[in-house]
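We examine the record.

___
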Amino acid sequence: MKTSQPGGKNPEEVMSNSAPGGSTKTKTKTKRKGGGRKRNPDQRTAVDSEYRAPGRSYRRLEKKREARRKAQREEIYRREEETLRKAEEVFWRKVDETDGFDIEIEGAPCHFGGMSMYKGGDCPLEVKLYAKVGLHRYNMLEGTNLHLHEIEKYVVVCTLMPVSYYITLIAEDPATSSFVVFQTNVDQRSLGQIDFTCYISRPKGIKSEIYPNQFFDAKDLPDKWPSKEAFADQSRFLYKMQKSDWEEHDWIRLYMEISFFNRHRCLNHNMSDLKILDVVVETEENLPHETVLKSLRNVLVYIRYDQDLGADGVCKHIAIVRRTVEPTTHCVCLLGESQLVPDSE
């Protein structure tokens, strides 16, 4: 049994370290300052190079990925723009073909060019009044007696004034109890008074050919009821209407309702509370009484009417409306206002 002396070396270790010829070398290990094993500089460079390479590759890979993502985003945006462009082309072609009355195009938002489309039914009062104006113009031109049955749909174009209404409605002929799809267009220039033009009024399917450019009445209105002197003036042509006249020719009441509505837009309007008292129509030439009522000519209409306020009594008004007709296209411009009459008058 081999034993080692305390503090001595293992014999086998001594033998392994013995040089040929019996000489013995003592192996001395020197510890490098700073700790750790010293590496070959070439090996260190190779290791560092391998360590840095993944970082550079990752950055290059991320740049390629970002470039692909950017290209994909640009392609999606380009396709969306192309889809929208095609939808706009179809939309405006449809607008041109239908004069703005039919703009329901799949894939196209309904607000192109400030245009918004609404279904009929319980539509605003102004739309119903403008629809009646279109029927009034058509009846005057064609000698018909169409009445508003219901609003089917309407398009509002609102960018800057004027606001344009393209109304599709169902009209009824009381004489035959028949119905016809009808279209009318009104451009409204002011909210505080009557100031609008009716360019189109026709059965659907009939194409209008020419339109004037922004046809409006720019002259001032009279500010009061015609005096006795005005009736005596031979240069003026004033016609005092009878109750049977405004009962038979509903355009007179229509002018009163539009005047009242435009003055009191914020109120809850009940047109049945309005009662006509007197009507005077002034023309530019001497005409038969029946022609004044039935022909589409330039006229100035004065209407006295009462508003029934129930327990609060009666409010008196005067409506003054001028109708101007463009001679070539027969477009109708209405300019007017409603005035409150003081109790002293």
Q: What stands out?
A: The two ends are 147 Å apart (CA to CA).
